[in-house]
Amino acid sequence: MSMLLRNAPLRAARAFNVANRQQVRGVHFENVVDHTLPTDVKNKPLLAAKIIIFATLGFGTPFYAARWHIQKSSGGAA
C-alpha cells in the first residue's frame, strides 16, 4: 500500500518539473545594445531621476517606517 501512496506524488512532481523546464526554454531575449534595462537610457536626466527616486524610496522607506512606529508608540510627541 505504501508504494501506491508514494508513486502518485512522485509522478506529479516529475510532471511539474518537466512543465517548468519547457517554460524556461521557451523564453528568448534579443541581445540588442541599449535594450538591456526596462527603461529608456537615451534620456539621461529622466534616467537619473528614476534611479534617484528608486534608490531614495528603497533605502529610505525602512527608516521612515521606524520613525513612524517610534512616534506612534511615544504618543505622537515630536
Automatic annotation (TrEMBL):
<dbReference type="Pfam" id="PF02935">
    <property type="entry name" value="COX7C"/>
</dbReference>
<keyword id="KW-0472">Membrane</keyword>
<dbReference type="InterPro" id="IPR004202">
    <property type="entry name" value="COX7C/Cox8"/>
</dbReference>
<feature type="transmembrane region" description="Helical">
    <location>
        <begin position="47"/>
        <end position="66"/>
    </location>
</feature>
<dbReference type="GO" id="GO:0005743">
    <property type="term" value="C:mitochondrial inner membrane"/>
</dbReference>
<dbReference type="GO" id="GO:0006123">
    <property type="term" value="P:mitochondrial electron transport, cytochrome c to oxygen"/>
</dbReference>
<keyword id="KW-0496">Mitochondrion</keyword>
<comment type="function">
    <text>Component of the cytochrome c oxidase, the last enzyme in the mitochondrial electron transport chain which drives oxidative phosphorylation. The respiratory chain contains 3 multisubunit complexes succinate dehydrogenase (complex II, CII), ubiquinol-cytochrome c oxidoreductase (cytochrome b-c1 complex, complex III, CIII) and cytochrome c oxidase (complex IV, CIV), that cooperate to transfer electrons derived from NADH and succinate to molecular oxygen, creating an electrochemical gradient over the inner membrane that drives transmembrane transport and the ATP synthase.</text>
</comment>
<protein>
    <recommendedName>
        <fullName>Cytochrome c oxidase subunit 8, mitochondrial</fullName>
    </recommendedName>
</protein>
<comment type="pathway">
    <text>Energy metabolism; oxidative phosphorylation.</text>
</comment>
<comment type="subunit">
    <text>Component of the cytochrome c oxidase (complex IV, CIV), a multisubunit enzyme composed of a catalytic core of 3 subunits and several supernumerary subunits. The complex exists as a monomer or a dimer and forms supercomplexes (SCs) in the inner mitochondrial membrane with ubiquinol-cytochrome c oxidoreductase (cytochrome b-c1 complex, complex III, CIII).</text>
</comment>
<dbReference type="GO" id="GO:0045277">
    <property type="term" value="C:respiratory chain complex IV"/>
</dbReference>
<keyword id="KW-1133">Transmembrane helix</keyword>
<keyword id="KW-0999">Mitochondrion inner membrane</keyword>
<comment type="similarity">
    <text>Belongs to the cytochrome c oxidase VIIc family.</text>
</comment>
<keyword id="KW-0812">Transmembrane</keyword>
<keyword id="KW-0809">Transit peptide</keyword>
<dbReference type="InterPro" id="IPR036636">
    <property type="entry name" value="COX7C/Cox8_sf"/>
</dbReference>
